[in-house]
Amino acid sequence: MTAPAESETALEPVIGLEVHVQPITRAKMFCGCSADYAGAEPNTHVCPVCLGLPGVLPVVNEEAIRLIVRTGLALNCGIAAFSKFDRKNYPYPDLMKGYQVSQYDLPLCSGGWLEAEAEGEPFRAGITRVHMEEDTARLLHRTDAATGEGYSLIDVNRSGTPLMEIVGEPDLRSPEQARAFLVELRAILRTIEASRANMEEGNFRCDANVSLRPRGAEALGVKVEIKNMNSFRAVHEALRFEIGRQTAILEGGGTIRQETRGWDQQRRETAAQRSKEEADDYRYFPEPDLPPLAPGRAFVEEIRAGLPELPAARRRRYRALGLSAFEAATLAEARDRSEFADAVAAALPFPPARAAKLAANWTLGEAARWSNEHDGERLDRFPLTPAALAELIALAEDGTITGQVAAGVFARMVEEGGSAAGIVEREGLARVDAGDELAAVVRRVVAENGKAAADYRAGKTAAIKRLLGGVMRETRGRADPNTARELLERELGA
What we know:
Order of helices and strands: EHHEEEEEEEEHEEHEEEHHHHHHHHHHHH
Strand order of the largest sheet: 2-5-6-9-1-10-11-12-13
């Protein structure tokens, strides 16, 4: 089945996102089991608390509370002076005790917003709430090879790990805005070091609620929840499909049923899973084994004071320095990349705008290439310090070495260490200017490449590129290309 493509109709999409994020903590939410379970043998990070055995008592992980407050502040939320945990009852087998410890009517963070840009247009989307809960166990579905019957196994390692739920307002109006919202949220979470926020690893999971209504109407339509999306692309495709599916139903005179649908990556379509639960179905009530939370003003302000510069502020600063929208967005998306570029710029002996441009060029060029070749290694682990890279850039900019030589020196510094100035002096890589040495090289290259010289003199001006390449090889890239070209033109015109 293929739903009609999203089109300009009298119907308007209304989208709200619910994002579950695993914060970076050493221990689980209510016990001392390690939260670093990735790759561990099933059911090895467990204890009576996360197994849900009778008589156990949970203890709140303070670091998880700090990270949710940090996230709430970064998302412009108000932090509640009084909050509590609740029991969310449901019958699924991925929590052995039959309920999840979550937050219901008194979340820790609420009333925030996030700004992003989609298709060149800025927008603001509200954040209803950010609350903390515990994650569930994992169900591993199998098929018996002999009988063909299906069965499921339970891995409890994930059960009880902290999980932030970030609930967005239904302020998004297109799949493009939804994707931009998630990209910006991921950048914020990584910048404040609250989560790795990687959808492919499962520590950043998104459900989307989508409905349609007549354009200009205030009332919301019947919403459908979409699950099982494990990439930004999947979110975008699933929303486009679902908007098209609902449009076809409504324009055909049908009605939308409130339900939960899953995204089928293979078939590129959503499929019905179950009717959508309401809050009453979960029978929330206050968690009797945990005391209320009352983060004091000093606690909150200490966390606020420790927040780094956020991606949106970084983008504005870079744009004010003259960087392109692409450069600003790419730098600001990753904190390590942004801070490395800032440190390089600060070490350069040039005006701020020029220093920022040069730092961006090298950070997004050579340094980013190194990161990509090393499985996305962070730039705070880059072999060159910002000061060392700034020294190399300055040598290239003041004319001591050519750009070609600078690239080679960069590679040597990364592989072997040492300073740029030391390598240049030791290897004799300083630029060759319009002196007798370069003039002699030009005469020799012209003499040894008679056909190219004859082609140029016959009007085939592109032939000079072969001669210029010869000069650069002879000088090991030390010749200034513009100077070498001028000398070649003079020699060929003689």
